[in-house]
Amino acid sequence: KGSPVQKSSGSRDVNPDLEAERQTASFSVESLTAILDGGADNTRTRRAVEAVIHSEPGFSRENQYFQSQNERYEAAVRRSVYLKEKMHQMGWTEDGPEIKYCYRTLGGDLAFNVHRVFKDSILALGTDEQIAKWIPLADKYHIIGTYAQTELGHGTFLRGLETTAIFDISTQEFTLNTPKISAMKWWPGDLGKSATHAVVFAQLYIKGKCYGLHAFILQIRSLRDHSPAPGVIVGDIGPKMNFEHIDNGYLMLQNINIPRENMLRRFSQVLPDGTYVKRGSDKINYLTMIVTRVHILWTEVIPMLLKACTIATRYSVVRRQSKLNPSDPEAKILDYQTQQQKLLPLLATAYAFHFMNAYVNEFYNKGYTEIKQENFDSLPELHALTAGIKAIITEYCTAGAEVCLRACGGHGYSALSGLPSLYTKLAASCTYEGENTVLFLQTARFLVKCLAAVHSGQPIPPSAAYLSSVDSGKCQARTKMDFLKPDIYAEAYRHRATRSVKSTTKLQALVQSGAEQHEAWNQCTVQLVQAAKAHCHYIVVKNFIDTVEKLRNEAEIQKIVKHLCDLFALHGIFSNTGDFLHAGYTSGDQMDMVTASYLDLLAVIRNDAVPLVDAFDFTDESLNSALGSYDGHVYQRLYEWAQKSPTNKQVSQAYARYLKPLFQSAVSKL
Amino acid sequence: MNRDLRRERDSASFNAELLTHILDGGAERTRRRKEIEALVLNDPDFQHEDLNFLSRSQRYEEAIRKSALMVVKLRNYGIADPDEIYWFKRCVHRGRPEPLDLHLGMFLPTLLTQATLEQQDRFFMPAWNLEIIGTYAQTEMGHGTHLRGLETTATYDPATQEFILNSPTVTSIKWWPGGLGKTSNHAIVLAQLYTQGQCKGLHAFIVPIRQLGTHEPLPGITVGDIGPKFGYDEMDNGYLKMDNFRIPRENMLMKYAKIEPDGTYVKPVSDKLTYGTMVFIRSIIVGDSARSLSRACTIAIRYSSVRHQSELKPGDPEPQILDYQTQQYKLFPLLATAYAFHFVGAYMKMTYHRITGDINEGDLSELPELHALTAGLKAFTSWTANAGIEECRMACGGHGYSRCSGLPDIYVTFTPSCTYEGENTVMMLQTARFLIKSYTQVSSGQLVSGMVSYLNDLSGQHIQPQQVAARPTTVHINDPASLVEAYKLRASRFVEVAAKNLQAELNRRKSQEDAWNRTSVDLVRASEAHCHYVVVKLFTTQLSEINDAAVHAVMNNLCLLYALYGISKHAGDFLQAGILTDAQVTQVYQRVKELLAAIRPNAVALVDAFDFHDNHLASVLGRYDGNIYENMFEWAKKSPLNKTEVHEAFHKHLKPMQAKL
């Protein structure tokens, strides 16, 4: 009947059900945490940052779930300002190791996130002179910038953007205009209320000729009183599913004149006489885009899945419901196989994605060095790889957070669980920095090219090299234990990816039979997306296997991480049986073995589930969840937090104003 | 009207109105529905500001204002038919919950079914007249699914002839009931009854919680709102804690069980009507799954025909995004699903009415089966719709994420139906229990009837994959009836696999419960396969009832798409059981894509047929006229952050910072 500790409301000792889970861990949580952080030194730095942040009430997110959009925005601005001061005070720099931990600790609830993109774009596209002029101002926050690219009518298709910048030789100025409603800049963060300046993308016109998209620096608000500049209509785009703390904005420009110098002109410029000059390759631009795409995965996206897993797993050992055996007390819900099936594959996924960081970084660093030396050979692969990896990670993390939410039953639906806010933030990541379907198709385009290279005997980029290896025929597994061998399942994934990519030869078939290239492409896109997913899935499985290999000096940890790797791989097969059975690589009997091994693994990992989420080492403040705290005092906390709800503090007028008089009139009429 | 939408509508191959009639259950019902909706739409009392810009407290106030008005107006208009009340309410609250939901939907009906005549005299008319507003307090913080575990106690004190109600632990606090936090002054409370030192299990008590007149909580009662949620902003889901709170003996609902003044407990006669109520509520949730998904599809499909992006052919104007195969692949299977679920909801409701007719004549034989099987359908449809709504939202890209799209609201309002009225996994396992029972019956030589009669074909035989594969393949992928057979085989196979694995676990271990738990993944799969079969079957059956040839043609395509898309997503099941060959699965993939192209010209007309008024859709992206961009701008101007040109945060934080750095 209720857990005894909950009766003493003041005490904060750990819930015994949760404590029991920690007693039986098969490995050292602290060691795993260090591995996840990339070394014990990093763990120390992170914890030091967390201690600083949590000791400062100015950073508190305590009442966040009760705040209005206005209050959320103001609080985010407040925290960001505090953070600048604190960083200054602590001597933390913008490129130091601490900043990402600040971000992690505050769960991204900060303003001025696009200010950084504003600076990055000037650094990438501006001349040294432009950099010298704008960057110091931005560093000191004397100006706050945003990056205005997306319009109401155009997101994915950049060439379709409709904002215009017309060069006037007589005045040596560009005139910027929003020619129609759909050309309004729409969505940029920090644009609505914060930014004073914007990097605006517009179609450049000189003497009536369009030269395509270029970037311009534009002042949008007064530096004296913050009022919008003349000819500028700017505001917030209204409430969203989340990100209420961000003033995503709209921007309409009416004959705004800016000097010729305000076009970012490292790669192209307009001379005083109106001559358009292009110089150098702006391919390095792609690199900036790739950096942002990769950056969000490990600073925003994946940590949110880790948090959702932490909350749902801890709650699932505190929550008891129904009985497994009539004579026993009610069971922890994590002891139900169906609950394990919901949560434990997600836990494995969280680890799988976390470990992708090293892989992508290695690729990135290699590519970056080459590109700096004006060698762009690796760019297509880097681009394709990060596009697909971004898409698969955001898709799985979003779906995963929602599973966690629903796995917590009714209480997961409470905002106080923290899960609705994690889910709705993740949901946005499937769209921003490249819509996922579009990204998968970019990866697919690369794979189709690789396949053509295989056929014509040309070299294949490393990430797709497997496409040229010989078909291994049939899966070699004979018992369910065989499916715990990485070679066996890696090969199954490789086979599936190869077959899936090869099935896109239908594209060529369609073209050869007379279809136009674009029509053939469109008719194959469903298949192409599937090929890209199979490819990315294989890469993640392969990297997980490699990561397990590298843990050979940590026997206990290697063992549990190997279990997670097996689970991730087998769950993927179990959830996509059609792909693996089709064409007969895996037999029906083998599929039954997969299922059996997969279900066995659930029971094994179940025992370490809590230590595995503890290893993520999120502070309670950072989780901000009534269900997920380290001490497991779920119910007490729910009750305490609910009492703080404004609906309980403020006197609602609803009764006096509406109910009472209407009910009385109802009484007299009825 | 937007040119693209006009063109889409002009080129439809069928009359959308005829399809609307089918969905409504006849032209006359469509007429009456529209008449009732017009009463609300033309009534200035029901107009209000866009709810997206209101705080939670404001939304609650607005909802309660409308709820109270609604009750009065319904009675003034003399609208008493349940369907008509439902149409009216849906239009007033635009598909959102309202604080009086539990008063009207649970408190009043429970009084009617479980109160004695004396209790009805005391409570019913005041409740009908809203002097008493009640809620139904069952769920506690620590217990939802497992009702027997509820901890609230009601101890009978014969000395005063009162019950003493207590919430002995934090976990026993009543938590979640709608309307409990701020609205209700009474609650029907479920508590463990203790009398003469013995626990008699759960019983229902009428408990006053707030003072009539002042509306202040009564001494011994702690009551409040449980705080912000994912959605349900307008609902004051509440908590209730009772400390030695006394109520008279006469406040226990005593139509069935009784307590004599001396504390003697009189056992209830069994109450089979509750099965009927649950079937009815589940049919409403299935209907709601269909409607919520239909709304999401309407928004996403209209937006996708107005939105132009990128290029298919270099040099051509940007195409409507609905012309991209990937977009069709996201949306059209969901459109087909929305139609399928409409027919399932209608079937469940009809069956309920037929059987409750039987109940009055005393024939309850079908009720346990229906109860068991509709549990799974509730879970199956709400899970699918839940995912589908999000898919629609994401198909609208960034703009789908704005609340102006209406999609976030549809989702957050719908998603709790995966949990309430029976958590979905638990529901699936209830259906599985019935399937296993039926399988066991068949194995022992008895025949079963109804939706599970396909199990008779197993008749003790075991379908071996090889055996099925060895049979000549008879599935015709263009014939819905043949696809029903394919789904039937898949369901039988999964039921059989689950039953065998359960037996194997039983042979290995002693406890029934443990074996059940270790087979539950298989059992849920069996239930899902069963439900999927039922849905395909009901959709197919519906086709034969469509007389208009043009409507029939388009519905036939949707039905095929529903069935074939399901096969393509679960191809492994059909391959492993040998129901389909490799070559057939490849054909299915191809046929799905052909169907997308076939449905494309009718997509807008198909969502128009759902006939949602703009007011109800509450979506800038889904507007009937398609004038999206200008209205997004108008909408955004009303954002709370735009109340002033320069936000307060500038003066409070930004300006001082710039001074310091």
UniProtKB/TrEMBL annotation, chain A:
Residues 286-448 form the Acyl-CoA oxidase C-alpha1 domain. InterPro entries: ACOX_C_alpha1 (IPR055060), Acyl-CoA_ox_N (IPR029320), Acyl-CoA_Oxase/DH_mid-dom_sf (IPR046373), Acyl-CoA_oxidase (IPR012258), Acyl-CoA_oxidase_C (IPR002655), AcylCo_DH-like_C (IPR036250), AcylCoA_DH/ox_N_sf (IPR037069), AcylCoA_DH/oxidase_NM_dom_sf (IPR009100). Residues 486-663 form the Acyl-CoA oxidase C-terminal domain. It holds the Pfam family ACOX. One of its GO terms (biological process) is lipid homeostasis. One of its GO terms (cellular component) is peroxisome. Keywords: FAD, Fatty acid metabolism, Flavoprotein, Lipid metabolism, Oxidoreductase, Peroxisome, Phosphoprotein. Residues 28-144 form the Acyl-coenzyme A oxidase N-terminal domain. It is found in: Peroxisome. FAD binds at T150, G189. Signal peptide: none annotated. The keyword Oxidoreductase applies. PANTHER family: ELECTRON TRANSPORT OXIDOREDUCTASE, PEROXISOMAL ACYL-COENZYME A OXIDASE 2. This is Acyl-coenzyme A oxidase. The active site is at E433 (proton acceptor). Residues 1-24 are annotated as: Disordered. Its main location: other. Residues 1-12 have a biased composition (Polar residues). SUPFAM superfamilies: Acyl-CoA dehydrogenase C-terminal domain-like, Acyl-CoA dehydrogenase NM domain-like. GO terms for molecular function: 3alpha,7alpha,12alpha-trihydroxy-5beta-cholestanoyl-CoA 24-hydroxylase activity; acyl-CoA oxidase activity; FAD binding; fatty acid binding. Its cofactor is FAD. Belongs to the acyl-CoA oxidase family.
Automatic annotation (TrEMBL), chain B:
Pathway: Lipid metabolism; peroxisomal fatty acid beta-oxidation. This is Acyl-coenzyme A oxidase. It comes from Chelonoidis abingdonii (Abingdon island giant tortoise). PANTHER family: ELECTRON TRANSPORT OXIDOREDUCTASE (PTHR10909), PEROXISOMAL ACYL-COENZYME A OXIDASE 1 (PTHR10909:SF250). Gene3D superfamilies: Acyl-CoA dehydrogenase/oxidase, N-terminal domain (1.10.540.10), Butyryl-CoA Dehydrogenase, subunit A, domain 2 (2.40.110.10), Butyryl-CoA Dehydrogenase, subunit A, domain 3 (1.20.140.10). Keywords: FAD, Fatty acid metabolism, Flavoprotein, Lipid metabolism, Oxidoreductase, Peroxisome, Phosphoprotein. Its main location: other. It is found in: Peroxisome. Belongs to the acyl-CoA oxidase family. The active site is at E421 (proton acceptor).
